[in-house]
What we know:
Blueprint: H1 6-12, H2 25-34, H3 41-44, H4 51-58, H5 62-65, H6 77-83, H7 88-100, H8 119-130
The structure holds heme C.
Amino acid sequence: MKKQIWMPACLSMALFVAACGGGEEKKTEEKAAETTTAPAADNSMVQDVKGKGKELMAMQDCATCHKETEKVIGPSFKDIAAKYPENDENVATLADKIIKGGSGNWGEVPMAPHAGIPVDDAKEMVRYILSVK
Ligand code: HEC
């Protein structure tokens, strides 16, 4: 499987790094000790320019498996944005993936299908995701 660039994102979000597992645990403790940043800081990294997609996702279960800057069960939105430039083709492909689910681009863990989401809403979500830097 391809190893993606999760590690830098994990390090920068030391407070959440538990999700990254394994060898990073020690560093987490050190970093957590020297920072007082509240968890809410997570949102400050995201501009509200793509607010609609973000709102749509808040009504779904996306946050169970995705966060903006750290890998949870699925890749972080930052990593997804780094992998796919925003263009019509990628927006369409990823919107399709949100609706149908699937696996293989980031590992063996499958993305859950969301059959009830209209294509246009899924595209809004993708535009938001690809705007996360
Ligand atoms: C049950 C966990 C889970 C939920 C819920 C979930 N995802 Fe995912 N998502 C994943 C996993 C795992 C992957 C990686 C799939 C792969 O390797 O191709 C992924 C991948 C993605 C990708 C990248 C797809 C690709 O082909 O690179 C996007 C975009 C995405 N998710 C958006 C969403 C959105 C939007 C929602 C909410 C509507 C959502 N996800 C809900 C687990 C989840």
